[in-house]
Each structure stands twice: as C-alpha cells, then as structure tokens.
Write a structure and sequence with these properties.
Length: about 210
Amino acid sequence: MARYRDAVCKICRREAEKLFLKGERCQTAKCSFEKRGYFPGQHGKLRRVKISDYGIQLREKQKIKRYYGLLEAQFRGTFEKANRKKGITSDNLLKMLESRFDNVVYRMGLAPSRNMARQLIRHRHFNVNGKLVDIPSYQLKAGDEVQVREKSRKMEAIHDSMRRIKEGKQLSWLNLDKANLKGIYLNVPNRDEIPVLFNANLVVEFYSK
C-alpha cells in the first residue's frame, strides 16, 4: 500500500498551519513548526505567495487530506462517497473521515497519532466488536466497540498514549474504558461537534470544477 514517507513536519510548514501529525510532540517545544514556521526549502523564508481562489480551495483540500493522513486517491474516493449520500456533502465528508477506524483509535487515545494508529491497526492489534479488523479505513458504525487485543495489552506505545488522556476530556461521541483498553463509538458526530476548523465547503468547490 502506498504511503507518505517524507518528513511530516514539512507538511505543516507547507500548509502554514500546525496539523498535529506527530501527536504529543506537536504540543512541545520540539515541534519543528514552532522552530521553523516558514515554507520548507532553500528560499522558504523569502516566499511571498499571492494565492488565487483555486489555490485557496486546493490548500484547504490538502490540509484536510493531510490532517487525516490520506493520499489523494483515498481522499477523492471518500469525497465521492460523501457526495452520493443524502445531506450536505461537506458535512458528510468530515463525518466519514471521523468515522474511520484509524481516526477513532487516535481520538480515543489508544495511539499517539493517526499515523501510529494506522500502523497498530495493520499489525493486527485491535478488535471491533470482538473480531479482528486490520483495515485503517474501515468505517465504524454507532455502537461499535474498539478493543486492544489480548496479545497486545502490554504494548508500551499504547500505554504511553493512554497516560496522556485526562478524565473528562473525551469527545462526546466516544466512550473510553481506560482500565480495559477499550472504547465505544457511540454515534456519528454532528458537524459542530467535530473539533476541526477546516472549511470543507472549499473541498466541494474544488472537486466541482
């Protein structure tokens, strides 16, 4: 499976916005965006870009795609599915991205980043409703239970991530049982519950051209 292999901190600098792609590290002074908050490349400090309407739409699409860790074909496929569903396409898109298995594992605190969540899922460390699921893009449904598999319950990466989760800080559509390393995806979140500031309407405009 194709995946992005370059330095992820360059992504935040290219988008001129912190996308929290390295999890907890992004909250510390080690964050590269805090040290070098300018465009990557030799002339990054000198770049002055006048951006068109198309460019604004493109950059917003790139931000959302990179925030959730998808490649272009995956993101376009998700958009097309969202466009075929009833309702507002931009809201459907964000709801589908939030319902991805890798995103829910990250949101629950069972992994320090979405990238690590994808790796743990592919390495078969999680069950959904008692059955092994190793597909990061798997769409969870309301009521689905995510649990760390028995053989993986002593993994230090998972426990390190769980230690950072504070009581009462869980999102309203998730229920976490830290003691048993499991959680329930209670319901698909409403748009105003999703803690992202991206303008998904610009993605609709971009793909509508």
